[in-house]
Amino acid sequence: MIPALLLTLAVEVPLYVLALTALRLATPARAALLGVAVNLLTHPVLWWLLAPRPSAGRLWGAEAAVVVVEAAVLLLACRRDPALLLVTSLGANAVSVLMGLLLL
Asked: Which of 43, 80, 81, 94 is the most buried (most CB within 10 A)?
């Protein structure tokens, strides 16, 4: 679980920084903290939901829930444009899942 979390952070935090700063929703430092925080919140739950035998259906369902939760946390922190934050979360998580699948 720890290597997966480190990969997730390495992929998603820069994407959150890029997106949130480009959209003028956060400073780079705040965006980085938000990227770390949402992943520390959702990553352990994701792995718990997938254990002991992940299936494709469980993976996609759990990832969909992660996208929604991360977007909600971003909404609480940024208080702006829920749809934009949902797309931001979807993009960061899609790249993260793709990287994880490519490395399997």
From this structure: 43
